Amino acid sequence: MRLYKNIIRKCIGRLSAIAALASVLSLQSCDMIKDESDCYQSYNLVRLVYDHNMKFADAFDSEVKAVTLLAFNSETGRLVKRIDAPHSALNDDNELVLDVAPGKYDIIVWGGEHPKSFAIATGTEGESQIQDFHCRMNRLDEQGTAHVREDLAPLWHGQIDVELPYASPSKPNRITVPLKKDTNTFRVVLQHISGEAVNCDDFDFTITDSNGWMNHDNSLREDVDITYHPWYTHSGSVDINTNPTPAPGSASLPEAFSTRSALGASLAEFTTSRLLTDRKPILTVTNKKENKVVLSIPVIDYALLVKGFYHKDISDQEYLDRQDEYNMTFFLDEGNRWMSAVIIINDWRIVRHETPVE
Question: Which residues contact 241 (CB under 8 A, 6 or more apart)?
Answer without folding.
Answer: 260
